[in-house]
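User: structure tokens for this one?
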Amino acid sequence: MANNPRSKHITQGVARSPNRSMYYALGYEKADFDKPMVGIANGHSTVTPCNSGLQKLADIAIQATKEAGANPQVFGTPTISDGMSMGTEGMKFSLISREVIADCIETVVNGQWLDGCLVIGGCDKNMPGGMIAMARTNVPSIYVYGGTIKPGRWKGHDLTIVSSFEAVGEFTAGRMSQEDFEGIERNACPSSGSCGGMYTANTMSSSFEALGMALLYSSTMANPDDEKVGSAAESARVLVEAIKKDLKPRDIITRKSIENAVALIMATGGSTNAVLHYLAIAHAAEVEWTLDDFERVRLRVPVICNLKPSGQYVATDLHRAGGIPQVMKLLLNAGLMHGDCITITGRTLAEELADIPDLPRADQDVIRTIDKALYAQGHLAILKGNLAPEGCVAKITGLKNPVITGPARVFEDEYTAMDAILADKINPGDVLVLRYLGPKGGPGMPEMLAPTSALIGKGLGESVGLITDGRFSGGTWGMVVGHVAPEAFAGGTIALVKEGDSVTIDAHQQLIQLNVADEEIARRRAEWKAPALRYTRGVLAKYAALASPASKGATTG
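Assistant:
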């Protein structure tokens, strides 16, 4: 495979290498050169609570790797906190960090000729970044999710990070007191762990269980709890066994296992970002997977989990209700998952789920049975039309009517749109168009959580549409459409929309349309000129030059 230059086992190379002296400097003994070399890619940092609790998981993984008869080699990976960078120029680095993480892991695993890799991560881009690297390097690998945060509490209500963003809109609309605004801000994030709803981090980690690249139950454990440490240790032991069996990521990441992962995402009401990330993961694994495949899965898989942002509960509630294995068992029994897919344990998915009850417990309302689904079909709809001929992604759960036709309110960036929302210049029936925010135009395809949350806080979530060539946070809900392709910077039709143009979003017809005559659109396109690059050097410029369209995963690999 092109990205994996190794042609023999590393220990064979090390055994014959004159550079063994450098291993002796690390405390190795002669017998260690007969053991597998296992990379521990540690995403621990104090940048964000999502990653601040990872060191204990790395420590136990190191210990368990040694006890299993392998040599751990620890290295770090970076992270960008989406929640902290949201609404700032820093958000442009978020998606780029996925590529940087993948490149870091690939560089060390291949540069050091490692026999396997255990990746530990927390914040949103840690998961797809790690999985892309696993698929590229194709040495036996396993993902260890850092764990979810526990819900915050204020005046008897559960909180997540999205509560803070929505509170901004409510406070500026005069619908919330100063006391409650500050109380929510102080109490939304009570501990270490990743954002607690079925937002991007929990969406991707949950899907890794279905993909077969992470242990069952590991994605919904809370970071502060002891079981998370035990799961990390078991993950290291399972990885060492996978190395002995030569069970590699591309044996596990197949078209059928990706379909399992996407089915799980639909069933749990997961993040729009999962579309982008699985396009990139499939590309790295050289598996054929397109936007149309997401729509194919959506049409047959119901939403059966009542989870935030559009539902009531958080990941810790899901864990207590039976976790992802219970959701998968329901889907498997309904013929909506492929039980013959191999997992990192060496057993098939059906074998892994054999002891899981056929029905969820009756004393919970987080996981529904298929016949009592919240929605008969999945929530991540792929729309196409003259505004997005290559496709875009709409999140349609939680809406009474996912159809709107209204006047375009056009903004060239997120900040002016946010100012207009907070100044009450946006009216029911409007369709906001936020553009030049795509992979190349942003660059980095920033998330629009601040404006979408402000709309919710202002009470406009059901009556105002928002279209962008940027992304949305996993915490977003409402009449929102993202990942519009081609993007504005590439001359997509979204660049040609004018203030007041009629625009239609119709999830029922899977349509996104600029209601302007073809001749007028052609005239505008002839007059359009590409803007200058916003950045001409550094990582943002590199990403803008290399990134594929959103419809292809916005990846550089």
